[in-house]
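Why should sequence recovery work at all? Because a backbone constrains its sequence more than one might expect. Tight turns favour small or flexible residues, buried strands favour hydrophobic ones, and helices have their own preferences. The token representation captures these environments compactly. In the example below, the structure is given first.
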């Protein structure tokens, strides 16, 4: 999964950098506000790809005394920074540039450069989206796309996918704005296209901020995983009841599991400890993403040998 995420990020960086250069060249020749906005958009997306790579690299650092559960949440932090950059660097600047162009429209020039660049950019974006979509499908399985986006614990893939989708829509907005500006001989429409692109980016950024915030604060594993762990523990012959199952993601593939299990009263302490070891092994075997398991074991026997014990 990590390899697929990195592949999607690298594809996005290469595509966006090439697109940004061509857009700035076209903006310089034509004076188009929408094309300049699109160049800024692609440049921001290129930088965001670099920030996501930093997050991926930092999240792979091994656990230490200061961070005993590892550095997996570094990825969530950098995903949040990416969302903020999209909002301010993409949406904010695009809206500002668009308003300035509407208030002081520039003279219309030959749009041929713009059309060529937009066409090339769409080809680049199609490639980038296809790579991001394939990476997304790895985690999708049989679930709906929206469900996966809302429950995904790896912000890398859906962030790149949303960025690429917004980029493609931005290209369409730019094309419509430039075409109408020349067809109706009204350069203000070019600026309006920039405003529309800015609103689009701000909306995408707001959603990404919301999703990244949830991951950074701490989200549980998906309901299917929690139900699977509860079923697995409950099926063990030594377990009488399960009090609670608590989970938290410390990264896309780092899950903390804590649970309270009450064992049958006739079991001696040695068998309770053996059952705890057995459950830990079974949980990790079925769910490789579980990195830490803490089981609070309590036998219902009243003897001293069966007093509550904590095992990790």
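From this structural description, the recovered sequence reads:
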């Amino acid at each position: 999964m990590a390899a697929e995420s990195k592949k999607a990020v690298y594809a996005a960086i290469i595509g966006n950098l090439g697109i940004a250069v061509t857009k700035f060249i076209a903006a310089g020749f034509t004076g188009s506000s929408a094309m300049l906005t699109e160049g800024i958009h692609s440049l921001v997306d290129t930088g965001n790809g670099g920030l996501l790579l930093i997050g991926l690299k930092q999240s792979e650092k091994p656990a230490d005394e200061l961070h005993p559960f590892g550095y997996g949440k570094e990825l969530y932090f950098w995903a949040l920074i990416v969302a903020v950059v999209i909002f301010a660097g993409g949406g904010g600047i695009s809206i500002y540039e668009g308003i300035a162009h509407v208030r002081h429209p520039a003279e219309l020039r030959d749009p041929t450069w713009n059309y060529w660049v937009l066409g090339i950019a769409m080809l680049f974006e199609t490639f980038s989206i296809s790579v991001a979509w394939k990476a997304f499908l790895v985690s999708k399985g049989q679930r709906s796309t929206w469900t996966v986006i809302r429950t995904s614990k790896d912000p890398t893939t859906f962030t790149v996918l949303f960025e690429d989708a917004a980029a493609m829509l931005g290209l369409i907005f730019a094309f419509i704005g430039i075409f109408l500006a020349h067809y109706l001989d009204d350069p203000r429409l070019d600026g309006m296209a920039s405003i529309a692109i800015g609103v689009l980016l701000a909306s995408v950024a707001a959603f990404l901020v919301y999703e990244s915030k949830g991951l950074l604060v701490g989200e549980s594993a998906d309901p299917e995983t929690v139900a699977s762990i509860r079923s697995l523990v409950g099926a063990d012959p030594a377990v009488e009841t399960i009090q609670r199952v608590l989970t938290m993601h410390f990264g896309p593939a780092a899950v903390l599991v804590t649970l309270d299990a009450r064992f049958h009263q006739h079991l001696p302490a040695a068998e309770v400890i053996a059952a705890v070891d057995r459950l830990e092994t079974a949980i990790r075997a079925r769910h490789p993403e579980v990195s830490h398991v803490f089981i609070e074991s309590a036998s219902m026997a009243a003897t001293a040998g069966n007093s509550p014990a904590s095992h990790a």
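A few observations help interpret the result. DSSP finds nine helices and four strands in the chain.
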